[in-house]
């Protein structure tokens, strides 16, 4: 990988904002990094719920290569996992990228691109069964790492994934410095952030929020 990595973020209508913004906050701080925010059409996107519009640098037709590809998730990923143009582009970028990564249901798009067949992968807990239809082996882990490929579980796990990736790319000292700079020191008020920890009534409520 070059000393100044080129990082592409795929965003799309129906994106969950933190899936993108968390990793962007971390990875854009890598020394010398160059980021490109890409959408399927090259137009701005409307994030999940329609309450946030995000601009882009270019469309997938305008970007042929990247050192790092980050594919976030959200409701729109369930559509894009079947979009031939998007999945073909993801597969093309992944062929030569040093790292291909996903957050949350972004793994559905990686699966749709044929990148997870027979491999363990993680995603948002509500999408594990759907992920299995791509040939992946869903696991209830926050991060699953292979050489050149990382999948992260739901939403907030994208920050953890990005810090791990920062360490792989630039070393642990840089990653720890980024962690301190963004003051990432999780101390949640509740211990209910994983499906396996949540009681039945909270699991039911989570589907509606």
Describe this structure in words.
This protein is an alpha/beta fold and 209 residues long. It has a single domain (6-206), classed as Class I glutamine amidotransferase (GATase) domain (Rossmann fold, 3-Layer(aba) Sandwich). The chain is 34% helix and 18% strand. A seven-stranded mixed sheet has the order 5-2-1-6-7-11-10, with helices on both faces. Strand 3 and strand 4 (53-54) form a beta hairpin. Helix 1 (17-27) runs parallel beside helix 6 and helix 6 runs antiparallel to helix 7 (172-181). It is globular and about 45 Å long.
Helices and strands in order, then pairings?
Blueprint: E1 6-10, H1 17-27, E2 34-39, E3 45-46, E4 53-54, E5 58-59, E6 68-71, H2 77-80, H3 84-96, E7 99-103, H4 106-112, E8 120-121, H5 128-132, E9 137-138, E10 143-146, E11 149-152, H6 157-170, H7 172-181, H8 200-206
Parallel strand pairs: 1-2, 1-6, 2-5, 6-7, 7-11, 8-9
Antiparallel strand pairs: 3-4, 10-11
Helix pairs in contact: 1-6, 6-7
How confident is the prediction overall: mean pLDDT? 96
Biggest pleated-sheet summary: 7 strands, mixed
Overall shape: it is: globular
CATH homologous superfamily grouping: Class I glutamine amidotransferase (GATase) domain
How many DSSP helices? 8
**Helical residue percent?**
25-40%
Strand order of the largest sheet: 5-2-1-6-7-11-10
Please mark out the parts with pLDDT under 50 across 5 or more consecutive residues, or reply none.
none
Q: Quick one: CATH class?
A: Alpha Beta
CATH structural fold name: Rossmann fold
- Which structural class fits the helix and strand makeup? alpha/beta
